[in-house]
Amino acid sequence: MASHSDTLVVFFGATAGANGGKLGSDEREIILLVWQIVDLHEKKVGKLHKCHVKPDSLELTDQCKEETGLTLDEIIKAEPLDKVLQQFQQSVSSEVKCLGRNSYTLCVNSPLIIRQALHPEASKKNLVLPECFFSFVDVRKEFHKCCPNAGPAQKLTLTSMLECILCQTKIRSFLIVLISRMVSNHKFSCVETVKYKFDSGTCSKTEPVDNETVIRARGLPWQSSDQDIARFFKGLNIAKGGVALCLNAQGRRNGEALVRFINSEHRDLALERHKHHMGSRYIEVYKATGEEFLKIAGGTSNEVAQFLSKENQVIIRMRGLPFTATPQEVLSFLGPESPVTDGGEGLLFVKYPDGRPTGDAFVLFSCEEYAQNALKKHKQILGKRYIELFRSTAAEVQQVLNRYMSTPLISTLPPSPIVSTRDCIRLRGLPYTAGIEDILEFMAEHTVDIKPHGVHMVLNQQGRPSGDAFIQMKSPDKAFMVAQKCHKKTMKDRYVEVFQCSTEEMSIVLMGGTLNRSGLSPPPCKLPCLSPPTAYAAFPTPPAILSEAALYQPPLLAAPRPPQTTAHSPAHTLAYYPPQPHLYMNMNMNYTAYYPSPPVSPSTVSYFAAPPGPGALVRMQGLPYNAGVKDILSFFQGYQYSGMVQMSEQARSLIQPKEWLCL
Q: Which residues belong to any copy of the RRM domain (predicted)?
C-alpha cells in the first residue's frame, strides 16, 4: 500500500494467550481483530469494527479472558481467521471507496500483531494475506519522531504517549500527532515492510556481520530448506542469503541453522519464537554471533561465487554420484522435464583438494516446477548407485565447498606441544588379504626408506584388516615422494590411495581412533592403556606421544611409575604403567582402543619393559581369534599375574597372529 495515502486504517488484535508485550510469544491463535478508518484529509474517524475469530484450539487463558473480556461461548460462535480477513478486506475497501480514495495505510500500536501473530498463523494455515499486511506504520515510532523526549520507541505504550500529549499545550490530542506528521510531509517517515519471500544469496567471509542480528535454530527436520526456515520466521525480515544450514562431520545436516536478520529488532522478535513448532517439532532459538555465521555461510571461492551469481535460482543437492559421473550423465539422469540452468554451467561438482570427486554435486533450476521434477528422481539409479536429491541453499554450497577444499587428507587434532612431522604415509583401500610382503612389494624401490618395523596394519573392531595401513618413512621428503609415486597404484587388482601424514595422526588411529572419508575421530574408549603405551627402548623421547594419549584419556590414564633402568638396556629408560584392577570391568569394549599398536616404530631390543621385582613373561600362541580378556583370565584361574598386553601390529608381523603376552 502507498505509504503516503490520505486514509489510515488503525488495526489492533489479541490472541488466546499472552498479549501486550508478549503477544505471539506463546504461539496462541488470534481471537480478536479490531480496526477503524481515519480520513487524514478531512480529519474524520470512521466506524469502529470489532470481529471475533474462532481458533482451531478452543481454549482461552485466564490472562486472555481478563484482558479482552471474551468468553469461550463468544469465540465458538465466531468465524475462522480466513473468513474474518475477507470481511476486513471487503469492509475497508468499501469505506475507502466511499471516501473517494483508492489506497490506505495500516497503522498499529505495536508490530507484534503483524509480525508475531498474523503472519506466522497465516503461514501455518496456508492463508494468503491481503497486500496491506505487508506494509504498515508503527504509532510508537511515529510518536517518537514528534516527541523524542518521550523515551525509546520500543518502551512507549498508549498510556505513556497520552500522558505525554496532555503535558504539551501545542498538541490537543493523540490523533493530531499522527495527522500533523502526515500533513506536514504527506507521508509517514517510518514505514515498515514484511518481505514476501526469502532472498537467497552469497556471503563473503570478509563481510561484516553484526552480532546482534544472528540466531541459532536447533531441532530442525533434517530435510528443511532455507525457505522452510524463512517460513518458520514469517513476519520477520531475514537478510539476503541469511539462512545457513549447519552440517555434521559427514557433510549431512545436523538439524541446526544460523539465521541472520536485517536488524537487532527482528533478531529479538525471533528469540521470542523459542520452542515454537515447525510441523510436529519444536524449534529452539538462541543467540549466535556474526563470527559463527560467517564460519558456516562465508566463502571465498570464485568458482562458488560464479555458480551462485545467477539470481532467483532453486538449488538442489545431489549426493551419492558415481565418482566417474560426467556432466552429460547427470543432465541425462535429470531428464528433459527438469532442465538445468545453462546446461552444464548449472552443475557444480564437489571435489577434494587433490581433485578427486566426493560424489556430491549442486544443480541450479530456474523455477520451482523444474526443481520439483528433479526431486522426483530421489533414490533413482545412476550407473549402479542410487542418488539422493535434496533442496539446498547458497550457504550450504559454501559450507560444503569450504569443508572439502579446506580439510586435509587426514584431519588434524588440536595442536600438540611437539611440532608435527609429516614423515608417514597412509595406504587406503588395501585388499583385505594383503600382508606385509604385499605392501613391501607395492612400495618397490621405496622399501629401503622405511624405518625399521615401520609398517603398521590397521584392524577394525573385530580384529580384522580394515584396508588401511600406515608406514613410517625415514624423512618427510621420502614420505612425499612415495605419496606421489605410489598413489593409485594397483595391488591385487585394486588401486590403493597413498597420502602423506604425520606421526601424530597415525598415532591416534593406532590407539583406536577411526578413519572415514571426513577424516579422523578420537578413540571411542576412555579406558587407560594396559600396555606400556608409548615409551620404547629405542626412542629416548616418548612424551611426544604420551601427550596424545593424555589428550583423550586425562581422567583415567594410569600414572606411570618412575623410569626403570633394565640390566639388558642400561642406556635407555622406560615408563611403566602398573596394572589396575578396574581395567577389566567391561569385556565388550573395543579392545583395539586400549590395546593399541605402538604409535612409534620400536626396535626389537628391550621392546617390553621388564616389570619391577620378580616375575616372568609368558607368551601365548594359538589363541582362538575371538578370544578376549575374560577368556584369558579364565584360562589362568588360580595363578597370580600382574598384567597382560596384546601384541602390537608390527610385533605381530614377526610372529603368528593373535598372540598375547602375560606378565
A: 214-286, 315-390, 424-499
DSSP 331-400: HHHH-TTSPPTTGGGGEEEEE-TTS-EEEEEEEEESSHHHHHHHHTTTTEEETTEEEEEEE--HHHHHHH
Q: Which is the CATH superfamily of the domain at 214-297?
A: RRM (RNA recognition motif) domain (3.30.70.330)
Is 587 within 8 Å of 629 (Cβ atoms)? yes
**Is the fold of 317-405 the same as that of 424-514?**
yes
Q: Element (H or E) spanning 425, and its range?
A: strand 424-428
CA distance linking residue 170 with residue 149, whole number of Å: 15
For the stretch 197-222, pLDDT in tens is 888 877 777 889 999 999 999 999 98
**Long-range pairs for 324-333: beta carbons < 8 A, 24 or more residues apart:** 324/383, 325/357, 325/361, 325/382, 325/383, 329/382, 329/383, 330/361, 330/363, 330/382, 333/377, 333/380, 333/382, 333/387
- The C-alpha cell at 542 is 616418548
15 pLDDT exceeds 50? yes
Q: Does the pLDDT at position 256 exceed 70?
A: yes
CATH class of 424-514: alpha beta
What CATH number was assigned to the domain covering residues 317-405? 3.30.70.330
Query: What whole-number percentage of the chain has pLDDT above 70?
Result: 69
Comparing CA positions, the residue from 13, 120, 16, 122 lying closest to residue 75 is 16
Task: Look at the block and give the residue holding cell 465466531.
Answer: 78
pLDDT class of 550 with cuts at 50, 70, 90: very low
Angstrom distance (rounded) from CA 361 to CA 347? 7
- Kindly give the interhelix angle for 436-443 and 476-486, rounded to the nearest 10 degrees: 90
Domain 7-193, what fold? Nucleotidyltransferase; domain 5 (3.30.420)
Q: Where are the domains of the chain?
A: 7-193, 214-297, 317-405, 424-514, 618-662
